[in-house]
UniProtKB/TrEMBL annotation, chain A:
<comment type="similarity">
    <text>Belongs to the ABC transporter superfamily.</text>
</comment>
<dbReference type="InterPro" id="IPR003439">
    <property type="entry name" value="ABC_transporter-like_ATP-bd"/>
</dbReference>
<dbReference type="GO" id="GO:0005886">
    <property type="term" value="C:plasma membrane"/>
</dbReference>
<keyword id="KW-1278">Translocase</keyword>
<keyword id="KW-0677">Repeat</keyword>
<dbReference type="InterPro" id="IPR027417">
    <property type="entry name" value="P-loop_NTPase"/>
</dbReference>
<dbReference type="GO" id="GO:0016887">
    <property type="term" value="F:ATP hydrolysis activity"/>
</dbReference>
<dbReference type="InterPro" id="IPR003593">
    <property type="entry name" value="AAA+_ATPase"/>
</dbReference>
<protein>
    <submittedName>
        <fullName>Nucleoside ABC transporter ATP-binding protein</fullName>
    </submittedName>
</protein>
UniProtKB/TrEMBL annotation, chain B:
<keyword id="KW-1133">Transmembrane helix</keyword>
<dbReference type="GO" id="GO:0022857">
    <property type="term" value="F:transmembrane transporter activity"/>
</dbReference>
<feature type="transmembrane region" description="Helical">
    <location>
        <begin position="158"/>
        <end position="175"/>
    </location>
</feature>
<keyword id="KW-1003">Cell membrane</keyword>
<feature type="transmembrane region" description="Helical">
    <location>
        <begin position="50"/>
        <end position="78"/>
    </location>
</feature>
<dbReference type="Pfam" id="PF02653">
    <property type="entry name" value="BPD_transp_2"/>
</dbReference>
<feature type="transmembrane region" description="Helical">
    <location>
        <begin position="290"/>
        <end position="309"/>
    </location>
</feature>
<feature type="transmembrane region" description="Helical">
    <location>
        <begin position="12"/>
        <end position="30"/>
    </location>
</feature>
<feature type="transmembrane region" description="Helical">
    <location>
        <begin position="251"/>
        <end position="270"/>
    </location>
</feature>
């Protein structure tokens, strides 16, 4: 596909920083990118938005030389360019900041910056040059970071700056950022946006890949929407709305905000007092957590990943041990002994949708029906007799759950890894919710889940609340916490920084608490 | 123990530590690049046989040395193909190569010489002979240091000095050069190297081939320096002790020198039951043989600092989106 016609004429009028014409890429029978054309103006911030699996990452991998497109053309500054490998992408002036940073943890910032861009066979000249360049870049773009610090000692926000510095050190004119704010606090994200705007003012072109509509609206000039491997629209950000973008992404109308009635909380179901957890490295991960979740309410735990939320879920779910007091419906739970395991917790009426469904929630190589039985494989209805399980009963039950939760494809014998992220999550949620628990622990319910499934899972959580169940929700997505929770507790460094009412608080206030600033217990 | 006996033991220590040091540095290159290599033993054995066989046939130890390096390189190449190109399990590949080496060396030696899987004894130009360092005689009048220089430092074969020189050379290469930076990076996070536009495959192959060359030196030293000819299983687990030393040294070159000297010292002591008897202690020889492994377990258990292997070690690199 050469894309002569109208595209050709536009390109000759004003060269774009990047222009893609008719890019297609298939992996076996799966068409990841289908005839994609896009034009990115020089010195602009261009957003690319789409659900998981829409083909954004594939497209960017083609631009960075990880994959070769089956057909189509890439033009950089109006010149046709081939990008067979990452070296060529770097030479063409493209810099990439991946979602998962590509840094060497026990190297210094300087060593990471020069890696692959050394001046010669000896390191010393490269290091001293990089030190000077980094100083200049820091002054110019608010990109301060200690050049001699080890990466493993830096915060996530600073590590991301190192990635940006790496690209700028290689004299990138086009910077691609893949889901850059997923791991940042709101304040760090604001800082990142200031950096990006500064880069734009210097004439750099920035491509921002994200699934967060708010970011697109806040910082981009233009936005392109991808759906199922195709580019469905490119619009000027100022002339669109989050609702319109969501509809373009999913292909139908989507409720961005969960509809829910005010909560009618009943008696306390979960009471936690002074809960402490010390990990294998003898680091105190929970430093005296106290909280209460009542029947018929959702308590949302906000916080940047790694501040003790995972440990809280693990102790409550019976995966980790701790000290302190946990009461469920007034009965004290065993935290260290024989009855502190997951099976006892399930018997007590606690269901757990873990944060990382691929590690803790599912066995990826096992079929859906086996995964549905996990944790509940002792249930009487799954037994044929004293020795054997009744696999037919489990399969039938799985089919029923798949129908209720709209799991696609509804095939119980399919391995978990062959479902999309959203459908995997539906399998886990179906398994846990359908057991009618008193308390549901749910961590990152919509991580890596497409918008359509997010809406569905959110509805299920609210429906469970309305049946009078207690729900403890942990999420790093502030939007999700704010729209679902009846009360919000913010965790920082193993402590609860404070509790807020979602109706009266705002992102700024929560963001400060998430960064450990203010709060009543600080 | 008198000073002369002590010097004798130190002299033996240097001889016995040399193959350990060469193999340990060999393993260091591969493992620092993220390719675990349990097959040091097999490569050494292969090199010991090929170098002794070719030296016996040609009468030249230098041609033998070249053959030894080629023999180990061949095995390194197979390990590289299996674990880098075809992303196989590195441990299984290493173990398999050890088994192959154990059998094929005897088979080839038997086919060539018909002496029960041995090579004929080497002598003269077919093996490495001791080198006398300058000023040995004039310096031996200096008390303490003079005899030390004569007995322990001087009078070793060529490869002993090569091994010693490889320690600072490896340190310099690892920490002062572009190649070293990339080598260390590819063992910690190959994706960082890949996205910087550097080939992970090529870097890892380079490292694995360096490992082959150094194993070649270690094996050749065994059969043409330390001993005069090849015999069945003559490396006797030295490849594994070298791996233990590598862990003990936490994958660092100077510490590798220290660890292999220590382990060499145990081996030297095990050869002198008379010295042990004189101390009044009754230490069975097998206990001395086991010491390197016991010390390694102690280090692995985190009792003396923590040994953290290269983070990407053992994992084939698969490009991800």
């Amino acid at each position: 596909m050469q894309g002569q016609g109208t595209l050709g004429r536009q390109a000759s009028a004003a060269p774009f920083a990047i222009e893609l014409r008719g890019i297609s890429k298939a992996f076996g029978p799966v068409q990841a990118n289908k005839d994609i054309s896009i034009q990115v103006a020089k010195g602009s911030i261009h957003g690319i938005i789409g659900e998981n699996g829409a083909g954004k990452s594939t497209l960017m991998s083609i631009l960075y030389g990880f994959y070769k497109a089956d057909s189509g053309e890439i033009l950089i500054d109006g010149k046709p360019t081939t990008i067979p490998d990452s070296q060529s992408a770097i030479r063409a002036g493209i810099g990439m900041v991946f979602q998962h940073f590509k840094l060497v943890q026990n190297f210094t910032v300087l060593e990471n910056v020069i890696l692959g861009a050394e001046e010669g066979a000896m390191l010393a000249p490269s290091l001293s040059k990089a030190r000077k360049v980094l100083g200049d870049l820091a002054r110019e773009y608010e990109l301060d970071v200690d050049p001699d610090a080890l990466i493993e000692d830096l915060s996530v926000g600073h590590q991301q700056r190192v990635e940006i510095l790496k690209a700028l050190y290689r004299q990138a004119d086009i910077l691609i950022l893949d889901e850059p704010t997923g791991v940042l606090t709101p304040a760090e994200a604001d800082h990142l946006f200031r950096i990006l705007n500064g880069l734009k003012d210097q004439g750099k072109t920035i491509i921002l890949i994200t699934h967060k509509l708010r970011e697109i609206m806040e910082i981009t000039d233009m936005v392109s929407v991808m759906r199922r491997g195709q580019m469905v629209a490119t619009v000027t950000t100022a002339q669109t709305s989050p609702e319109e973008l969501a509809e373009l992404m999913v292909g139908r109308k989507v409720l961005l905000h969960v509809h829910k009635d005010p909560a009618t909380p009943g008696a306390a179901v979960l009471e936690v007092e002074n809960l402490r957890v010390v990990d294998d490295q003898k680091v105190e991960r929970l430093r005296g957590i106290s909280l209460t979740v009542r029947a018929g309410e959702i308590l949302g735990i906000a916080g940047v990943a790694g501040n003790g939320q995972s440990e809280l879920l693990e102790v409550l779910g019976g995966i980790a041990k701790g000290s302190g007091t946990i009461r469920l419906n007034g009965k004290e739970l065993d935290l260290t002994g024989k009855f502190s395991d997951g099976r006892s917790r399930r018997a007590d009426g606690i269901a757990h949708v873990p944060e990382d469904r691929q590690v803790l929630g599912l066995i990826m190589d096992f079929s859906a029906w086996e995964n549905v039985a996990f944790g509940y494989h002792h249930a009487p209805e799954y037994q044929k007799n004293a020795l054997f399980m009744d696999n037919d009963a489990i399969r039938a039950d799985t089919e029923k759950k798949m129908a209720t939760f709209d799991v696609r494809p509804p095939i119980p014998t399919l391995a978990a890894k062959n479902f999309s992220g959203g459908n995997q999550q539906k399998i886990v949620v179906a398994r846990e919710i359908e057991r009618n628990p008193d308390l549901l622990l749910i961590g990152q319910p919509t991580r890596g889940v497409d918008i359509g499934a997010i809406e569905f899972i959110h509805k299920q959580i609210v429906a469970l609340r309305d049946q009078g169940k207690a729900i403890l929700l942990v999420s790093v997505e502030l939007d999700e916490i704010m729209s679902l929770s009846d009360r919000i507790a913010v965790m920082f460094d193993g402590r609860i920084m404070g509790e807020r009412d979602p109706a009266t608080t705002n992102e700024r206030e929560l963001g400060l608490l998430m960064a450990g600033v203010g709060g009543e217990s600080a | 123990m008198d000073y002369a006996t002590f010097l004798q033991i130190l002299d033996t220590t240097v001889r016995l530590a040399t193959p350990l040091l060469l193999a340990c540095l060999a393993g260091l290159y591969s493992e620092r690049a993220g390719v675990f290599d349990i097959g040091l033993e097999g490569k050494m054995l292969m090199a010991a046989m090929t170098s002794a066989a070719v030296a016996a046939l040609t009468g030249s130890v230098w041609v033998g040395l070249a053959a030894g390096i080629l023999g180990a390189l061949l095995f390194a190449l197979v390990h590289g193909l299996a674990s880098i190109t075809f992303r196989g399990n590195q441990l299984i590949s290493g173990v398999a190569l050890n088994f192959v080496a154990s059998g094929i060396t005897v088979l080839i030696a038997q086919d060539l010489f018909g002496q029960g899987g041995r090579t004929p004894p080497l002598s003269g130009g077919a093996r490495f002979n001791a080198i006398s360092l300058p000023f040995v005689d004039s310096l031996s009048v200096v008390p303490i240091l003079g005899p030390m220089y004569r007995e322990v430092i001087s009078g070793h074969t060529f490869l002993v000095y090569v091994a010693a020189a490889l320690v600072p050379a490896t340190w310099w290469l690892l920490y002062r050069t572009r190649f070293g930076l990339r080598l260390r990076a590819v063992g910690e996070n190959p994706a960082s190297v890949d996205t910087a536009g550097v080939s992970v495959i090529r870097l890892r192959f380079t490292a694995v081939l360096i490992t082959g060359v150094l194993c070649g030196l270690a094996g050749a030293y065994m059969s043409t320096g330390l001993q005069a000819g090849f015999g069945r299983e003559m490396t006797a687990g030295r490849g594994y002790i070298a791996l233990a030393a590598l862990i003990f040294a936490k994958w660092r070159p100077w510490q590798a020198l220290g660890a292999t000297m220590l382990f060499g010292f145990f081996q030297a002591l095990a050869l002198r039951p008379d010295v042990i008897a004189k101390t009044g202690l009754s230490i069975p020889v097998p206990a001395l043989d086991a010491l390197p492994y016991i010390l390694t377990v102690v280090v692995l258990a985190g009792i003396v600092g923590k040994a953290i292997p290269p983070r990407a070690g053992g994992e084939p690199y698969v490009k991800e989106r």
